[in-house]
Amino acid sequence: MARRLPPGPRTPLRTFIALNADPLGYLTDLARKYGPVASYLRGRQVVFAFNDPELVREFLVVKHRSFRKDRGMQVAKKILGEGLLSSEGDFHMRQRRLSAPALHKERIAAHGQDIVGYAGRTGREWSDGATLDIVPAMERLTLGIVGKTLFGTDVEAEAEELGAIKALAVDQFTMLRVVFSVIRDKLPFSGKGVLEEARGRLDRIVYRMIEERRRSGADHGDLLSMLLLATDAEGDGSRMTDLQLRDEAMTIFLAGHDTVTNALSWTWYLLAQNPEVEARLHAELDAVLGGRPATAEDVRRLPYTEHVVAESMRLFPPAWALGRLASEDVDIGGWEVKAGDSVVVSQWVLHRDARYFPDPLRFDPDRWEPAIVATRPKFTYFPFGGGPRSCVGEAFAWMEAILVLATLARQWRLRLLPDQRVTPTPRLTLRPVPGIRVRLERRRPAQ
Questions:
Q1: Which of 345, 270, 284 is nearest to 61 (CA)?
Q2: Which CATH class is domain 12-442?
Protein backbone atom coordinates (compact mmCIF):
# COMPACT_ATOMS: atom_id res chain seq x y z
CA MET A 1 0.00 0.00 0.00
CA ALA A 2 1.32 3.42 -0.98
CA ARG A 3 2.57 5.69 1.79
CA ARG A 4 1.07 9.14 2.00
CA LEU A 5 3.70 11.73 2.97
CA PRO A 6 7.49 11.53 2.79
CA PRO A 7 9.49 13.50 5.38
CA GLY A 8 10.06 17.22 5.09
CA PRO A 9 9.36 20.61 6.67
CA ARG A 10 5.82 21.48 7.78
CA THR A 11 6.25 25.24 8.14
CA PRO A 12 4.44 26.86 5.18
CA LEU A 13 5.34 30.47 5.97
CA ARG A 14 9.04 29.71 6.53
CA THR A 15 9.07 27.58 3.39
CA PHE A 16 7.41 30.36 1.39
CA ILE A 17 10.05 32.88 2.51
CA ALA A 18 12.95 30.47 1.85
CA LEU A 19 11.68 29.41 -1.57
CA ASN A 20 11.25 32.98 -2.74
CA ALA A 21 14.61 34.07 -1.32
CA ASP A 22 16.67 31.16 -2.69
CA PRO A 23 14.78 28.36 -4.50
CA LEU A 24 17.99 26.67 -5.68
CA GLY A 25 19.41 26.57 -2.17
CA TYR A 26 16.11 25.42 -0.69
CA LEU A 27 15.70 22.49 -3.09
CA THR A 28 19.36 21.53 -2.66
CA ASP A 29 19.07 21.54 1.14
CA LEU A 30 15.84 19.56 0.94
CA ALA A 31 17.57 16.79 -1.02
CA ARG A 32 20.58 16.85 1.31
CA LYS A 33 18.45 16.53 4.45
CA TYR A 34 15.73 14.13 3.30
CA GLY A 35 17.18 12.16 0.40
CA PRO A 36 15.49 11.03 -2.83
CA VAL A 37 11.91 11.81 -1.73
CA ALA A 38 10.80 14.78 0.36
CA SER A 39 7.70 16.89 0.79
CA TYR A 40 6.82 20.35 2.02
CA LEU A 41 3.77 22.56 2.32
CA ARG A 42 3.07 25.49 0.01
CA GLY A 43 0.17 27.08 1.79
CA ARG A 44 -2.22 24.15 2.18
CA GLN A 45 -0.86 22.33 -0.85
CA VAL A 46 1.44 19.34 -0.49
CA VAL A 47 4.52 19.44 -2.74
CA PHE A 48 6.54 16.29 -3.45
CA ALA A 49 10.21 16.75 -4.38
CA PHE A 50 11.68 13.74 -6.21
CA ASN A 51 15.48 13.64 -6.32
CA ASP A 52 16.05 10.21 -7.83
CA PRO A 53 16.42 9.41 -11.56
CA GLU A 54 14.08 6.42 -11.47
CA LEU A 55 11.36 8.48 -9.78
CA VAL A 56 11.90 11.26 -12.32
CA ARG A 57 11.46 8.69 -15.12
CA GLU A 58 8.27 7.34 -13.54
CA PHE A 59 6.96 10.89 -13.13
CA LEU A 60 7.83 12.27 -16.59
CA VAL A 61 7.46 9.14 -18.73
CA VAL A 62 5.40 6.35 -17.14
CA LYS A 63 2.74 8.34 -15.24
CA HIS A 64 2.80 11.59 -17.23
CA ARG A 65 -0.93 11.43 -18.02
CA SER A 66 -1.73 11.89 -14.32
CA PHE A 67 -0.26 15.40 -14.26
CA ARG A 68 -0.80 18.81 -15.79
CA LYS A 69 1.27 21.98 -15.80
CA ASP A 70 1.63 23.76 -12.46
CA ARG A 71 0.74 27.31 -11.40
CA GLY A 72 3.96 28.73 -12.80
CA MET A 73 3.04 27.66 -16.32
CA GLN A 74 -0.47 29.03 -15.89
CA VAL A 75 1.25 32.37 -15.35
CA ALA A 76 3.47 31.79 -18.40
CA LYS A 77 0.32 31.36 -20.51
CA LYS A 78 -0.27 35.08 -20.08
CA ILE A 79 2.55 35.50 -22.62
CA LEU A 80 2.96 32.11 -24.33
CA GLY A 81 -0.72 31.25 -24.77
CA GLU A 82 -1.45 27.59 -25.59
CA GLY A 83 1.91 26.77 -27.16
CA LEU A 84 3.73 23.46 -26.83
CA LEU A 85 5.32 24.49 -23.55
CA SER A 86 2.02 25.31 -21.85
CA SER A 87 -0.82 23.41 -23.57
CA GLU A 88 -2.31 20.16 -22.23
CA GLY A 89 -3.84 16.84 -23.23
CA ASP A 90 -5.08 16.05 -26.74
CA PHE A 91 -4.58 19.64 -27.89
CA HIS A 92 -0.92 19.46 -26.88
CA MET A 93 -0.44 16.18 -28.77
CA ARG A 94 -2.06 17.68 -31.89
CA GLN A 95 0.20 20.74 -31.75
CA ARG A 96 3.22 18.52 -31.24
CA ARG A 97 2.31 16.49 -34.35
CA LEU A 98 1.91 19.69 -36.37
CA SER A 99 5.15 21.23 -35.06
CA ALA A 100 7.43 18.20 -35.22
CA PRO A 101 8.15 18.33 -39.01
CA ALA A 102 9.33 21.94 -38.71
CA LEU A 103 11.89 20.87 -36.10
CA HIS A 104 12.96 17.60 -37.71
CA LYS A 105 16.73 17.07 -37.72
CA GLU A 106 17.03 17.21 -41.52
CA ARG A 107 14.93 20.38 -41.71
CA ILE A 108 16.86 22.22 -38.99
CA ALA A 109 20.21 21.24 -40.51
CA ALA A 110 19.32 23.56 -43.39
CA HIS A 111 19.52 26.45 -40.91
CA GLY A 112 23.12 25.71 -39.96
CA GLN A 113 24.38 28.28 -42.46
CA ASP A 114 22.13 30.96 -40.92
CA ILE A 115 23.42 30.17 -37.43
CA VAL A 116 27.06 30.33 -38.49
CA GLY A 117 26.40 33.49 -40.50
CA TYR A 118 24.91 35.36 -37.54
CA ALA A 119 27.62 34.08 -35.18
CA GLY A 120 30.30 35.13 -37.68
CA ARG A 121 28.78 38.60 -37.94
CA THR A 122 28.89 38.91 -34.14
CA GLY A 123 32.55 37.89 -34.13
CA ARG A 124 33.39 40.48 -36.80
CA GLU A 125 31.79 43.21 -34.68
CA TRP A 126 34.05 42.38 -31.73
CA SER A 127 37.44 44.06 -31.31
CA ASP A 128 40.59 42.87 -29.58
CA GLY A 129 40.85 44.17 -26.01
CA ALA A 130 37.24 45.39 -25.86
CA THR A 131 35.08 44.63 -22.82
CA LEU A 132 31.41 43.67 -22.86
CA ASP A 133 28.67 41.87 -20.98
CA ILE A 134 28.44 38.51 -22.75
CA VAL A 135 24.80 37.90 -21.69
CA PRO A 136 23.15 40.66 -23.79
CA ALA A 137 25.67 39.90 -26.56
CA MET A 138 24.47 36.27 -26.70
CA GLU A 139 20.85 37.41 -26.34
CA ARG A 140 21.15 39.69 -29.36
CA LEU A 141 22.84 36.93 -31.35
CA THR A 142 20.29 34.22 -30.53
CA LEU A 143 17.45 36.68 -31.14
CA GLY A 144 18.82 37.26 -34.65
CA ILE A 145 19.08 33.52 -35.21
CA VAL A 146 15.54 32.75 -34.05
CA GLY A 147 14.19 35.66 -36.10
CA LYS A 148 15.82 34.31 -39.25
CA THR A 149 15.08 30.61 -38.71
CA LEU A 150 11.54 31.11 -37.37
CA PHE A 151 10.31 34.09 -39.39
CA GLY A 152 12.74 34.13 -42.32
CA THR A 153 13.64 37.74 -41.61
CA ASP A 154 16.34 39.80 -39.94
CA VAL A 155 14.92 41.11 -36.64
CA GLU A 156 18.19 42.62 -35.47
CA ALA A 157 16.84 46.12 -36.05
CA GLU A 158 14.12 45.34 -33.51
CA ALA A 159 16.43 43.44 -31.15
CA GLU A 160 16.62 46.17 -28.52
CA GLU A 161 12.85 46.58 -28.30
CA LEU A 162 12.23 42.82 -28.34
CA GLY A 163 14.86 42.27 -25.65
CA ALA A 164 13.26 44.94 -23.45
CA ILE A 165 9.79 43.45 -23.93
CA LYS A 166 11.06 39.97 -23.11
CA ALA A 167 12.87 41.17 -19.99
CA LEU A 168 9.69 42.91 -18.86
CA ALA A 169 7.62 39.78 -19.43
CA VAL A 170 10.09 37.56 -17.57
CA ASP A 171 10.25 39.94 -14.60
CA GLN A 172 6.47 40.02 -14.33
CA PHE A 173 6.29 36.22 -14.75
CA THR A 174 8.71 35.85 -11.83
CA MET A 175 6.68 38.19 -9.63
CA LEU A 176 3.31 36.63 -10.45
CA ARG A 177 4.56 33.07 -9.90
CA VAL A 178 4.70 33.34 -6.10
CA VAL A 179 2.26 31.60 -3.78
CA PHE A 180 -0.17 34.49 -3.48
CA SER A 181 -0.27 35.24 -7.21
CA VAL A 182 -4.03 34.66 -7.41
CA ILE A 183 -4.57 37.49 -4.91
CA ARG A 184 -1.80 39.71 -6.26
CA ASP A 185 -3.11 39.35 -9.81
CA LYS A 186 -6.26 41.24 -8.74
CA LEU A 187 -4.46 44.14 -7.09
CA PRO A 188 -4.00 47.47 -8.96
CA PHE A 189 -0.21 47.38 -8.41
CA SER A 190 0.18 43.69 -9.31
CA GLY A 191 2.02 44.20 -12.59
CA LYS A 192 -0.77 42.45 -14.50
CA GLY A 193 -1.26 45.49 -16.73
CA VAL A 194 2.45 45.62 -17.50
CA LEU A 195 2.40 41.97 -18.50
CA GLU A 196 -0.60 42.54 -20.77
CA GLU A 197 1.16 45.49 -22.38
CA ALA A 198 4.25 43.35 -23.06
CA ARG A 199 2.06 40.65 -24.61
CA GLY A 200 0.29 43.22 -26.78
CA ARG A 201 3.58 44.59 -28.12
CA LEU A 202 4.85 41.09 -28.92
CA ASP A 203 1.53 40.14 -30.52
CA ARG A 204 1.69 43.06 -32.93
CA ILE A 205 5.11 41.93 -34.17
CA VAL A 206 4.23 38.23 -34.46
CA TYR A 207 0.77 38.68 -36.05
CA ARG A 208 2.26 41.06 -38.63
CA MET A 209 4.71 38.35 -39.68
CA ILE A 210 1.98 35.70 -39.82
CA GLU A 211 -0.20 37.96 -41.96
CA GLU A 212 2.67 38.68 -44.36
CA ARG A 213 3.42 34.97 -44.68
CA ARG A 214 -0.20 33.97 -45.27
CA ARG A 215 -0.45 36.65 -47.95
CA SER A 216 2.58 35.31 -49.82
CA GLY A 217 1.50 31.65 -49.51
CA ALA A 218 5.05 30.49 -50.22
CA ASP A 219 7.34 28.16 -48.26
CA HIS A 220 10.27 30.38 -47.36
CA GLY A 221 12.14 27.49 -45.74
CA ASP A 222 11.67 28.92 -42.23
CA LEU A 223 9.88 27.37 -39.26
CA LEU A 224 6.84 29.64 -39.59
CA SER A 225 6.28 28.43 -43.18
CA MET A 226 6.39 24.82 -41.99
CA LEU A 227 3.97 25.52 -39.14
CA LEU A 228 1.64 27.41 -41.48
CA LEU A 229 1.57 24.66 -44.11
CA ALA A 230 1.42 21.68 -41.71
CA THR A 231 -1.76 19.58 -41.66
CA ASP A 232 -2.87 17.16 -38.95
CA ALA A 233 -2.80 13.98 -41.03
CA GLU A 234 -3.46 11.78 -37.97
CA GLY A 235 -6.41 13.92 -36.86
CA ASP A 236 -8.97 15.95 -38.78
CA GLY A 237 -6.58 17.16 -41.50
CA SER A 238 -6.85 20.78 -40.38
CA ARG A 239 -4.13 23.40 -40.10
CA MET A 240 -3.23 25.83 -37.32
CA THR A 241 -5.30 28.95 -36.86
CA ASP A 242 -3.60 32.34 -36.56
CA LEU A 243 -3.95 32.11 -32.77
CA GLN A 244 -2.31 28.67 -32.68
CA LEU A 245 0.48 29.90 -34.95
CA ARG A 246 0.96 32.90 -32.69
CA ASP A 247 1.23 30.71 -29.57
CA GLU A 248 3.74 28.29 -31.13
CA ALA A 249 5.81 31.10 -32.63
CA MET A 250 5.82 32.94 -29.30
CA THR A 251 6.93 29.81 -27.45
CA ILE A 252 9.83 29.19 -29.84
CA PHE A 253 10.67 32.89 -29.96
CA LEU A 254 10.77 33.51 -26.20
CA ALA A 255 11.42 30.20 -24.45
CA GLY A 256 13.64 28.77 -27.20
CA HIS A 257 16.05 31.61 -27.67
CA ASP A 258 16.24 32.36 -23.93
CA THR A 259 17.40 28.79 -23.24
CA VAL A 260 20.27 28.99 -25.73
CA THR A 261 21.21 32.51 -24.58
CA ASN A 262 21.76 31.29 -21.05
CA ALA A 263 23.44 28.02 -22.06
CA LEU A 264 26.01 29.94 -24.13
CA SER A 265 26.53 32.65 -21.50
CA TRP A 266 27.27 30.10 -18.79
CA THR A 267 29.55 28.19 -21.18
CA TRP A 268 31.71 31.29 -21.76
CA TYR A 269 31.75 31.88 -17.99
CA LEU A 270 33.06 28.35 -17.34
CA LEU A 271 35.59 28.35 -20.19
CA ALA A 272 37.08 31.61 -18.91
CA GLN A 273 37.79 29.91 -15.57
CA ASN A 274 39.10 26.63 -16.98
CA PRO A 275 42.01 27.27 -19.38
CA GLU A 276 42.80 23.55 -19.79
CA VAL A 277 39.29 22.88 -21.10
CA GLU A 278 39.47 25.97 -23.30
CA ALA A 279 42.80 24.79 -24.78
CA ARG A 280 41.32 21.37 -25.66
CA LEU A 281 38.29 23.05 -27.21
CA HIS A 282 40.54 25.25 -29.36
CA ALA A 283 42.64 22.24 -30.36
CA GLU A 284 39.55 20.39 -31.61
CA LEU A 285 38.24 23.42 -33.51
CA ASP A 286 41.62 24.00 -35.14
CA ALA A 287 41.97 20.33 -36.10
CA VAL A 288 38.48 19.99 -37.55
CA LEU A 289 37.84 23.46 -38.98
CA GLY A 290 41.29 24.98 -39.49
CA GLY A 291 40.62 28.36 -41.06
CA ARG A 292 37.15 27.66 -42.49
CA PRO A 293 33.71 28.37 -41.01
CA ALA A 294 31.78 25.55 -39.37
CA THR A 295 28.82 23.86 -41.07
CA ALA A 296 25.89 21.79 -39.81
CA GLU A 297 27.79 18.67 -40.93
CA ASP A 298 30.59 19.58 -38.51
CA VAL A 299 28.39 19.17 -35.43
CA ARG A 300 29.03 15.42 -35.34
CA ARG A 301 32.75 16.02 -35.91
CA LEU A 302 33.06 18.20 -32.81
CA PRO A 303 32.43 15.83 -29.89
CA TYR A 304 34.49 17.76 -27.35
CA THR A 305 32.67 20.98 -28.25
CA GLU A 306 29.39 19.15 -27.61
CA HIS A 307 30.74 17.83 -24.30
CA VAL A 308 31.64 21.38 -23.24
CA VAL A 309 28.05 22.52 -23.87
CA ALA A 310 26.64 19.43 -22.12
CA GLU A 311 28.78 20.00 -19.04
CA SER A 312 27.81 23.67 -18.95
CA MET A 313 24.13 22.70 -18.97
CA ARG A 314 24.82 20.19 -16.21
CA LEU A 315 26.22 22.84 -13.88
CA PHE A 316 23.90 25.64 -14.99
CA PRO A 317 20.78 24.05 -16.54
CA PRO A 318 18.67 26.73 -18.29
CA ALA A 319 15.55 24.83 -17.16
CA TRP A 320 16.38 24.50 -13.46
CA ALA A 321 13.22 22.70 -12.26
CA LEU A 322 10.00 21.17 -13.61
CA GLY A 323 6.70 21.31 -11.77
CA ARG A 324 3.43 19.47 -12.36
CA LEU A 325 0.04 19.35 -10.65
CA ALA A 326 -1.58 15.96 -10.09
CA SER A 327 -4.91 15.75 -11.91
CA GLU A 328 -5.78 12.42 -10.25
CA ASP A 329 -4.54 10.21 -7.43
CA VAL A 330 -1.38 8.39 -8.55
CA ASP A 331 1.32 6.18 -7.04
CA ILE A 332 4.89 7.35 -7.71
CA GLY A 333 7.60 5.11 -6.29
CA GLY A 334 5.29 3.81 -3.57
CA TRP A 335 4.16 7.28 -2.51
CA GLU A 336 0.52 8.36 -2.78
CA VAL A 337 0.28 11.63 -4.71
CA LYS A 338 -3.27 12.90 -4.46
CA ALA A 339 -5.14 15.03 -7.00
CA GLY A 340 -4.20 18.66 -6.35
CA ASP A 341 -0.77 17.82 -4.94
CA SER A 342 2.23 19.28 -6.74
CA VAL A 343 5.43 17.51 -7.81
CA VAL A 344 8.76 19.18 -8.51
CA VAL A 345 11.91 17.66 -9.97
CA SER A 346 14.99 19.85 -10.19
CA GLN A 347 17.69 19.63 -12.84
CA TRP A 348 19.81 21.92 -10.65
CA VAL A 349 19.73 19.35 -7.83
CA LEU A 350 20.13 16.10 -9.78
CA HIS A 351 22.76 17.48 -12.17
CA ARG A 352 24.92 18.28 -9.12
CA ASP A 353 24.34 15.00 -7.27
CA ALA A 354 27.69 13.46 -6.25
CA ARG A 355 26.23 9.95 -6.51
CA TYR A 356 26.21 10.32 -10.28
CA PHE A 357 28.71 13.13 -10.89
CA PRO A 358 31.79 12.76 -8.65
CA ASP A 359 33.28 16.10 -7.59
CA PRO A 360 30.05 17.64 -8.92
CA LEU A 361 31.08 21.30 -8.91
CA ARG A 362 34.10 20.66 -11.15
CA PHE A 363 33.72 21.61 -14.82
CA ASP A 364 34.72 18.38 -16.58
CA PRO A 365 33.52 17.80 -20.16
CA ASP A 366 35.06 14.31 -20.10
CA ARG A 367 32.02 13.22 -18.09
CA TRP A 368 30.27 13.04 -21.45
CA GLU A 369 32.47 10.40 -23.02
CA PRO A 370 30.00 7.72 -24.24
CA ALA A 371 31.46 4.97 -22.03
CA ILE A 372 31.00 7.14 -18.93
CA VAL A 373 27.51 8.29 -19.91
CA ALA A 374 26.46 4.64 -20.28
CA THR A 375 27.15 4.03 -16.58
CA ARG A 376 24.63 6.64 -15.39
CA PRO A 377 20.82 6.31 -15.19
CA LYS A 378 19.16 8.35 -17.92
CA PHE A 379 17.37 10.87 -15.74
CA THR A 380 20.42 12.01 -13.85
CA TYR A 381 20.61 14.58 -16.67
CA PHE A 382 17.55 16.06 -18.37
CA PRO A 383 18.18 19.68 -19.42
CA PHE A 384 15.32 19.51 -21.95
CA GLY A 385 12.88 17.57 -19.79
CA GLY A 386 11.78 14.08 -20.73
CA GLY A 387 8.93 11.88 -21.87
CA PRO A 388 6.12 13.00 -24.19
CA ARG A 389 6.54 16.61 -23.02
CA SER A 390 10.27 16.84 -23.67
CA CYS A 391 11.34 19.94 -25.60
CA VAL A 392 10.51 19.48 -29.28
CA GLY A 393 13.26 21.98 -30.17
CA GLU A 394 16.06 20.09 -28.40
CA ALA A 395 17.93 19.07 -31.56
CA PHE A 396 17.84 22.65 -32.86
CA ALA A 397 19.12 24.01 -29.52
CA TRP A 398 22.07 21.59 -29.51
CA MET A 399 23.01 22.47 -33.08
CA GLU A 400 22.73 26.19 -32.43
CA ALA A 401 24.80 26.12 -29.24
CA ILE A 402 27.56 23.98 -30.79
CA LEU A 403 27.81 26.02 -34.00
CA VAL A 404 27.78 29.38 -32.19
CA LEU A 405 30.45 28.22 -29.74
CA ALA A 406 32.58 26.75 -32.54
CA THR A 407 32.31 29.89 -34.67
CA LEU A 408 33.24 32.35 -31.93
CA ALA A 409 35.73 30.26 -29.93
CA ARG A 410 37.68 29.55 -33.11
CA GLN A 411 38.67 33.22 -33.21
CA TRP A 412 38.17 34.57 -29.70
CA ARG A 413 39.12 33.96 -26.08
CA LEU A 414 36.95 35.54 -23.38
CA ARG A 415 38.52 36.59 -20.08
CA LEU A 416 36.43 37.40 -16.99
CA LEU A 417 36.92 40.90 -15.65
CA PRO A 418 38.03 40.84 -12.00
CA ASP A 419 35.95 41.69 -8.93
CA GLN A 420 32.56 40.61 -10.22
CA ARG A 421 30.10 38.26 -8.60
CA VAL A 422 27.84 36.31 -10.93
CA THR A 423 24.79 34.75 -9.28
CA PRO A 424 22.67 31.98 -10.85
CA THR A 425 19.17 33.45 -10.62
CA PRO A 426 16.17 31.20 -11.30
CA ARG A 427 13.54 33.01 -13.32
CA LEU A 428 11.79 31.51 -16.33
CA THR A 429 15.30 30.17 -17.05
CA LEU A 430 18.52 30.21 -15.01
CA ARG A 431 20.08 33.60 -15.67
CA PRO A 432 23.51 34.99 -14.73
CA VAL A 433 22.85 38.12 -12.65
CA PRO A 434 23.86 40.92 -12.96
CA GLY A 435 25.67 39.66 -16.08
CA ILE A 436 29.10 38.36 -17.11
CA ARG A 437 31.67 41.04 -17.93
CA VAL A 438 34.52 39.83 -20.16
CA ARG A 439 37.50 41.14 -22.09
CA LEU A 440 37.89 39.91 -25.68
CA GLU A 441 41.18 38.46 -26.89
CA ARG A 442 41.62 37.58 -30.55
CA ARG A 443 43.26 34.25 -31.37
CA ARG A 444 44.59 32.86 -34.65
CA PRO A 445 43.21 29.44 -35.56
CA ALA A 446 45.81 26.86 -36.60
CA GLN A 447 45.72 26.33 -40.35
A1: 345
A2: mainly alpha
